[in-house]
Write a sequence for this structure.
């Protein structure tokens, strides 16, 4: 259980670092605003995860989530390509969707694996799914 939480914690922290960079690359004001909103939500998720670790009585550690690391690298590579602005925006938007789905499915797998829903886990997932 702890490893899965650490993986999610790492993924969320990586997103906090990557989202501002990606938001600067997009040309659409609407997409930039959506990424900035997602950044604020992700920062809240990191804080929420810290509280989950507190409830478990352990310090949050962040073993690098390789899945999220790969997704962020793909977005970074796309952002470096010499392509039209609207194509870049569409690609970065799709890339952001993959990162969100990675986190969502990780949490669902976590619940399935452990076959239980502690109050703080359930609350965390309900708040997370509203993004």
């Amino acid at each position: 259980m702890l490893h899965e939480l650490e993986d999610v914690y790492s993924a969320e922290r990586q997103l906090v670092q990557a989202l501002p960079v990606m938001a600067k690359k997009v040309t659409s004001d609407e997409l930039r605003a959506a990424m900035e909103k997602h950044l604020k939500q992700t920062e809240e998720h990191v804080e929420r995860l810290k509280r989950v670790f507190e409830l478990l009585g352990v310090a949050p550690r962040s073993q690098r989530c390789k899945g999220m690391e790969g997704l962020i690298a793909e977005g970074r590579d796309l952002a470096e390509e010499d392509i039209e602005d609207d194509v870049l925006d569409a690609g970065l938007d799709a890339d952001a969707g993959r990162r969100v789905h990675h986190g969502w499915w990780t949490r669902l797998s976590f619940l399935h694996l452990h076959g239980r829903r502690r109050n703080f886990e359930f609350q965390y997932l309900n708040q997370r799914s509203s993004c």
